[in-house]
Design brief:
Layout lengths: L1 H4 L4 H30 L18 H8 L14 H32 L3 H12 L6 H12 L4 H8 L13 H26 L3 H8 L4 H12 L1 H16 L3 H7 L6 H9 L5 H33 L1
Helix pairs in contact: 2-14, 3-14, 4-8, 4-11, 6-8, 6-12, 8-11, 8-12, 9-10, 11-14, 13-14
């Protein structure tokens, strides 16, 4: 790839890079700038924003003061939005941990198979992407429902006598998020494990290392890039998820994604929703940068 760019003039490089740069500018940077602008204006009387715009910092101060809308007639709760942010991060960490714990052994199993079986198993992992995420979430809801497939099966074989309460709670949200984002963890970890030289494990065994010690000291550090990629690919979208918490949680599990969705939908408070979106994006970005830097240093020391 680098050889292709060598010897090119500045105008040739500009012609090659401009389509991608224009795409990023129009469909990534410009929407963020629009959201940034909306976050600093007042809400219109009927929703949306005031025209002409009136600039204010009230949307950000409301996040820290956590005052409920004036028409609700309730007092301020200084921990309201902080608690929702914290709950989103906690659920995101739980889902990410389970996706890595479930995805790593499966990725290892797939990588150890013969090429024909390996390709078939990877297709099975990718197949869920061929179906709309919303449709898959509703399908899982039907499986976990009181009269759904799982409860009917357990009652049919006599394990339970009445349906289990599997929906509209935090456990259902966690299960739904794991179900939806597990492939995002498997794919990068599989790519990292497939490139791993398994003869190093044999060398560690020849030197007297038991399998568990060889895994922790040899294989895991060398496949950490795939684990870190899986962590980011799962954690970032899960923290801002709103479809799964809304459907599987039945409105009982509050996450920052569902709160932002309500601001742009029912409440029509676009400025406040934009402010929350930007704060969420900033916090996630800071956390990802910090984690990647610390993780890279730990990986280098381990290797």
């Amino acid at each position: 790839m680098l050889k292709f760019f060598r010897g090119k003039s500045n105008w040739q490089l500009f012609g090659l890079l401009s389509p991608g740069a224009l795409w990023i500018l129009l469909f990534f940077n410009l929407p963020i700038l629009i959201v940034l602008f909306i976050s600093f204006v007042e809400r219109g009387r009927a929703g949306g924003i005031k025209i002409p715009p009136v600039y204010t910092l009230e949307n950000y101060s409301q996040l820290f003061n956590a005052c409920v809308s004036e028409f609700a007639g309730t007092a301020c709760d200084p921990f309201l939005y902080i608690g929702i942010f914290g709950n989103s991060v906690r659920i995101g960490l739980i889902v990410t941990l389970w996706c890595i714990l479930l995805g790593y052994p499966l990725s290892y199993f797939i990588a150890k198979q013969k090429p024909a079986w390996r390709d078939a198993l990877m297709i099975l992992v990718i197949i869920p992407f061929w179906t709309n995420f919303l449709v898959r979430t509703y399908a899982l809801k039907q499986v976990l429902a009181a009269e759904g497939l799982l409860n009917s099966f357990l009652m049919g074989i006599g394990i339970i006598s009445q349906p289990l309460d599997l929906l509209f709670n935090e456990s259902a949200v966690v299960i739904g998020l794991i179900y939806g984002y597990l492939p995002f963890a498997i794919l990068p970890m599989y790519a990292s494990i497939e490139k791993f030289d398994h003869t190093l494990m044999e060398a560690a065994a020849d030197l007297g290392a038991p399998p568990r010690r060889a895994f922790w000291r040899v294989m895991l550090p060398m496949t950490m890039p795939g684990v870190f990629a899986a962590l980011v690919l799962v954690f970032v979208p899960v923290v801002g998820a709103f479809i799964t918490p809304d459907i599987m949680g039945g409105g009982k599990v509050e996450m920052i994604g569902t709160l932002i969705n309500r601001q742009f939908g029912v409440a029509r408070n676009w400025p406040f929703g934009s402010a929350m979106s930007l704060i969420l994006m900033l916090l996630v970005l800071i956390g990802v940068i910090f984690y990647f830097r610390s993780s890279t240093e730990e990986t280098r020391r381990a290797m």
